[in-house]
Design goal:
Helix content is about 30%, strand content about 25%. It is of the alpha/beta class. The chain has a single domain, classed as Maf protein (Alpha-Beta Complex). Strand 1, helix 1 and strand 2 form a beta-alpha-beta unit. It starts with a strand and ends with a helix.
Length: about 200
Amino acid sequence: MKRLLLATRNAGKVREMRELLGGLDVQIETLATHPDVSEVEETGSSFEENARIKAVHAAGASGLWSVAEDSGLCVDALGGAPGVHSARYAGVHGDDEANNARLLRELEGKTERTARYVCVLCLSRPDGEVLVTTRGVCEGEIARAPRGSGGFGYDPLFVPERIAGVTMAELQPEQKNLISHRGQGLHAFLPLLRAHLDEAGD
């Protein structure tokens, strides 16, 4: 069975990606079991560039085909911010509560609250060849106060266009996976990944 490395230490992303990749005949591993794979600086100016940086680095360091993703929230009234800086918007990487609080402060007094979640997925071989890159987008708007206890990141503030009136954090995981940026990106990614896995064999 082929081994596939998910190049992330984010528990929320790992959980969602495992669920969405569950139908593949592969052994899914994560960076939690690969302490030899160091962190890599995300120096890209786009989600595509950062996903590529992470995938190529993880594949080269682990010797495994690696899937990396870069995702974030783009708010129209803030000129697309926080964008690629979503995870560290308030200064500390992964501090969801602080990031959400800053977002609400930045939007105080603004009537335009449209936004979108963006996710880019990238598959790299150990030799550094990038085989697949896909992009998923979920349109919505920013609520005026956080609601819900599910999900992670900006989910308590993000109201998806396709299920109006509730935040991502109020959805069941299976509902979220159907409409989320990560779900959309993986929907496009899966058939391409399967084709490459079939071509490569074990």
